[in-house]
Design brief:
Shape: globular
Bound molecules: uracil
Number of strands: 6
């Protein structure tokens, strides 16, 4: 791990900026390579993530690993984080106040990583990082320039588990992501 990220992680462990801090088992800070150029951002920890303290380790996480494989990457080459770092009870959507309270941690992670590309996994990440009015069904697969970075949203892996009809669009989006990574971050494939 990189020292700045380790220090941030240590500070974050005590966070009780929102009520989710009281109900979590483990805080789920992030996983992967902080020295990457490609960051994936999900929504928030589910049951398995809350128990293990690692993002995307449940069923959706297995699918995310498969999706990374499809673009010739794996967890050791990218960084994976979430909009909120503590599990919302019963996997409900994180509330706007919880997202607000938690976002400064993610923003600091983004400052440390300084990625060229951020992939939003699902609506919650896209509305938090791309634009408040983001419509995932209409705008997935499109690139947006935000604060000097390239951002794109795809369907959340949990949505792809629930609705396989969304998968063909996601294959197309993943190919687009791979070609932009090759263009902007050729070192990711060396
Ligand atoms: N879903 C998410 O959005 N994040 C996780 O870490 C796990 C499931």
């Amino acid at each position: 791990m990189n020292t700045a990220m380790e220090e941030l992680n240590t500070r974050c462990l005590g966070c009780e900026a929102c009520p989710l801090g009281k109900t979590r088992t483990k805080l789920v800070f992030g996983d992967g390579n902080p020295d990457t150029n490609v960051l994936f951002v999900g929504e928030g920890p589910g049951e398995q993530e809350d128990l293990q303290g690692i993002p995307f380790v449940g069923r959706a996480g297995q699918l995310l690993d498969d999706m990374l494989k499809m673009i010739d990457l794996d967890r050791s080459r990218v960084y994976i984080a979430n909009i909120v770092k503590c599990r919302p009870p019963h996997n409900r959507d994180p509330q706007p106040e919880e997202r607000e309270a938690c976002l400064p941690w993610l923003r600091q992670q983004i400052d440390i990583i300084d990625p060229k590309i951020i992939i939003c996994l699902g609506r919650i990440a896209a509305t938090s990082l791309i634009s408040e009015n983001f419509r995932i069904t209409r705008q997935h697969g499109q690139w947006f320039d935000v604060d000097g970075r390239r951002l794109l949203a795809i369907y959340h892996p949990s949505a792809l588990l629930r609705d396989v009809a969304k998968r063909p669009d996601t294959f197309t989006d993943l190919r687009e992501i791979r070609s932009e990574i090759r263009r902007l971050c050729p070192e990711m494939y060396t």
